[in-house]
Amino acid sequence: MTNRFLFIVFLFVAIAGQAQQRKIPVGAAGKQILYGKDLIVRTAYYFGPKGKLGHLANGMNCQNCHNDGGTKFYGLNLISTAANYPQYMPRTGDVMSIAGRINGCMQRSMNGKALDTTSREIKAMVAYMKWLGKGVAKGQKPPGSSVLKLAYMNKPANPIKGKAVFLQKCQACHGAAGQGLKIANSAVYTYPPLWGNDSYNDGAGLYRITTFAAFVKSNMPFGTTYITPQLTDEEAWNVAAFINSQPRPHFDQSADWKDISKKPIDFPFGPYADKFGEKQHKFGPYQPIANYKH
Asked: What is the CATH number of the domain that holds 247?
């Protein structure tokens, strides 16, 4: 599939999304959808350290990962979420609802606490995701969903080289110490911290390097799209390795992965059902692990 064809698809989706934006229902249903969107865009305003609804998370917003309110092409968008939940999650070993998935992000990516699944806020975020995914068939993931995966390198990702990429391409927004940039006189981040106490913890999806590298390639530095990347694949792998080598909060994952054979190839904590160690699972090379699993 060529970049030109994907670009045409991207434009179609964007135009369709703009048209859909004008069709938010009126009345209570529309207000609920808009509230759900605001919770995704301004999560820290509601749940951050000085949150309107209590301190339930760090100072990041959901859209720091799910770009543009969860609508960006290959920006971990939320358009196919409603069509793919509930679904069985090998990590937890159970069937997870959309509400459960939101709480997974709250506890891991936001390093916070789970919300009451019957709360107004959970219901609003679910309503927003269902509205975003209107027209997406059950079990389908349209082009642009999640991230555009990168080909595996034939060598490990290199955190030392990744530091050089970070200092050149990332520190202007995220700070030389990865501390992010806060709004003046606020606990809310304009640009999120990439490590440290206010960042995502080691149970988050972005702590897996294959996901983080793919996200960086298509979305970073800020304003990048998958059509006009600013980093090479190798630079994306290396900077992901550097960032995920820095200190961050720990999440108790002792209840995860009861079936260790289901662990992803880049899951950095053993034990494993294969012969490869934690270092290779974290940094690669991944193709030997993938070959072993199959």
From this structure: 1.10.760.10
Residue 6, pLDDT > 60, answer: no
Q: What pLDDT score was predicted for residue 203?
A: 97
pLDDT score of 181 more than 70: yes
Per-residue three-class SS string for 58-104:
CCCCHHHCCHHHHCCCCCCECCCHHHHCCEEECCCCEEECHHHHHHH
Residue 144 in any domain: the answer is no
Distance CA 277, CA 15 (A): 46
Residues 244 and 170 in one domain: yes
Interatomic CA distance for residues 209 and 213, integer angstroms = 6
CB 117 within 8 A of CB 99: yes
Record the tokens describing residue 29, joined without a space. 């249903």
Nearest in space to 284 (alpha carbons), one of 270, 265, 269: 265
**What is the phi-psi region of residue 240: left when phi exceeds 0, alpha when psi lies from -120 to 50, beta otherwise?**
alpha
- Six-digit token string for 51: 């949150």
Token reading at 215? 């996200």
Range of the domain at 32: 17-132
